[in-house]
Amino acid sequence: MYNIAIVAFVTIVLLLVSLASSTQGRRISPAPPCDFPAIYNFGDSNSDTGAISAAFWPTPSPYGTSYFGKPAGRNSDGRLIVDFIAEHLGLPYLSPYLDSIGTNFRHGANLATAGSTIIRQNESIFENGLSPFSLDIQTVQHYQFKTRTSELYHQARNPMEKNKLPRPQEFSRALYTFDIGQNDLATGFRKFSMPQLRAAIPDIVNQFAVAITDMLWASQEQRSCLVWAKANDQRHERLRRRLWVAGDVC
Ligand SMILES: *[C@@H]1O[C@H](CO)[C@@H](O)[C@H](O)[C@H]1NC(C)=O
């Protein structure tokens, strides 16, 4: 039985990751080694490795100059957290799902786009820079990516064709990372009063949980591993419970 691993960087929570927690306060056994064959990442500019750059405007200099030597599709001069995770796992940097050239999806794909939100905002990117690829759309894209991979893999006529594709059986062993939410807050500051924004946060968190649980159910996995964001808040406890599918924490 495989594990799906989820790292949720809920940027609306602000405090970060690495509280591995169990449902009934059980002590967690030591983590198994991180031998993930692929990464699937969802999010915004914190982890976009070139999607908006490919789909709209190339990221301008000086982004990328001090590490990559030129703009590298990231809204950052250096590497992003998702780049460091890939390096640590010995995997190549993630290609953006939306990029049409020079991509390699053998070890996963990046669905993140700069300006993404959890809640679909129905705004043009040309107004306030919000991406049309909100989290719900990213999960649909991932579903389509997975379905098409499976079809193409089974139609592939030779090993060379197969080697360009992810292994269908590796989806359930991949690491799934999420880094999204800050643009929901930024939009809230623009559109709402403070009390209205506070009142909207449970819905944002709920939508986040729905996107992840839908994806887990769609993958029909029996077990999941969580590295969970630490937060002193009932709402996040609720989210943690919703995210909990079954099984052990890795
Ligand atoms: C965007 O449009 C969808 C579909 O019409 C709607 O369900 C949703 O509430 C809208 N989002 C916002 C933030 O207005």
Nearest-angstrom radius of gyration? 18 Å
Give the helix tally.
8
Small molecules in complex: 2-acetamido-2-deoxy-beta-D-glucopyranose
Nearest-integer average pLDDT? 81
Write the H/E string, N to C.
Answer: EEHHEHHHEHHEH
Largest β sheet strand count, sense and barrel closure: 5 strands, parallel
Report the portion of residues in β strands: 5-15%
Helix content: 25-40%
Strand order of the largest sheet: 3-2-4-1-5
The helix-and-strand class reads: alpha/beta
Which keywords apply here?
250 residues; alpha/beta; five-stranded parallel sheet; 5 strands; 10% strand; disordered N terminus; disordered C terminus; binds 2-acetamido-2-deoxy-beta-D-glucopyranose
Structural notes for this entry:
With 250 residues, the protein is of the alpha/beta class. It contains 8 helices and 5 strands; from the N terminus they run ββααβαααβααβα. It has helices at residues 51-55, 81-88, 125-128, 135-155, 159-163, 182-191, 194-218, 234-243; strands at 4-10, 39-43, 108-110, 175-180, 224-227. A 5-stranded parallel β-sheet has the order 3-2-4-1-5. Helix 4 (135-155) runs parallel beside helix 7 (194-218) and helix 6 (182-191) packs antiparallel against helix 7 (194-218). The protein starts with a strand and ends in a 7-residue tail after the last helix. The structure holds 2-acetamido-2-deoxy-beta-D-glucopyranose. 2-acetamido-2-deoxy-beta-D-glucopyranose (NAG) is lined by residues 119-122. 2-acetamido-2-deoxy-beta-D-glucopyranose binds next to loops.
